[in-house]
Amino acid sequence: MKPESRRTVIAGNWKMNFAPSEAKKFIKKTAPLVAGKDACDIVFCAPYVSIDAAVKAAKGTNIHIGAENVHFEDHGAFTGEVSARMLKEVGAEYVIVGHSERRQYFAETDETVNKRTKAALAAGLKVILCLGEVKEQRLAGITDEVVGMQTKLDLAGITEEELKNVIIAYEPVWAIGTGLTATPAQADETCGVIRKVVASLYGKKAADEITIQYGGSMNDKNAAELLAKKNVDGGLIGGASLVPEKFSAIVDAAN
Ligand code: PGA
Predict the structure, then answer these.
(1) 68: nearest Cα among 47, 38, 42, 90
(2) Alpha-carbon distance values, 63 to 36, 44, 58, 92 (Å)
(3) Which of these is catalytic: 101, 108, 171, 209?
(4) What span, in angstroms and rounded, lies between the C-alpha atoms of 209 and 164?
(5) Is 229 in a helix, a strand, or coil?
(6) 99 an active-site residue?
(7) Cα–Cα distance between 132 and 114 in angstroms, integer?
(8) CA–centroid distance, residue 190 to ligand 1 (Å)
(9) How far is the CA of 218 from the centre of ligand 1 (A)?
(10) Domain 8-254 is in which class?
């Protein structure tokens, strides 16, 4: 049984999709499909330039808006970057940190992921912290060690109080955008490993209460089975978050 205080969170990661006008259209279309489905929190993480439009379109609905990344400094000479304070001002409530595409294509490390997480929490954002193993690591049998190490490094210096605003998204890199999904048993097992590491750092209560999502080719067909697992408290959804009917079917599965 999951503790009552643990929230299920269904979050869409739009990645580099949806300009402001498209974001607005999407939210207008999706809001009625997910209205009143309050057994989970519903979030869409948008490209920076579309956050404002998404926030305005989501006003008065049960949809929350987030960003897909954040810089760790508050302001200054960091061309092309956006700070947590700026995200707050446009109405973002959440931010994805450490997505595997950021780690893979933009050279982000556990050290910078940790700094971004700290900055976002200090500014009052909720963080969706992504971690997960690559295919070679799973094949080598070191998944538990990899996710354990990432959990420890990415959360270094974060207090138990701050942890209440952290969601962990377990995303096996081999399952992202590939159509390959971890089996429900694999997702449950590795989310459970992460929860044990959280328990070793913050105690059982914090571990019982933290939301741990699964991400990687979650869709309207496989969501119910994944979300039924004891350690899977929601999903971080890429491809299927771009189609209102597919996304709302996942929200239905969580309800
Ligand atoms: P996917 O992406 O659902 O398209 O696999 C998930 C993610 O990258 O967060």
Answers:
(1) 47
(2) 10, 7, 6, 11
(3) 171
(4) 8
(5) coil
(6) yes
(7) 15
(8) 17
(9) 7
(10) alpha beta
Length of the chain: 255
Answer yes or no: 64 catalytic: no
pLDDT tens per residue across all 255 residues of the chain: 788 889 999 999 999 999 999 999 999 999 999 999 999 999 999 999 999 999 999 999 999 999 999 999 999 999 999 999 999 999 999 999 999 999 999 999 999 999 999 999 999 999 999 999 999 999 999 999 999 999 999 999 999 999 999 999 999 999 998 988 899 999 999 999 999 999 999 999 999 999 999 999 999 999 999 999 999 999 999 999 999 999 999 999 999
Distance 54 CA to ligand 1 centre (A): 20
Domain-wise residue ranges, the chain: 8-254
Q: Is 171 in the pocket of ligand 1 (CB under 6 A)?
A: yes
Lookup: tokens for 77 = 């000479």
Which atom of ligand 1 is closest in space to residue 215's alpha carbon? 6
Whether 6 and 38 have beta carbons less than 8 Å apart is answered as no
Q: Where are the alpha helices (DSSP H) in the chain?
A: 20-34, 48-58, 84-89, 100-105, 110-122, 135-139, 143-154, 160-163, 184-202, 204-209, 223-227, 244-254
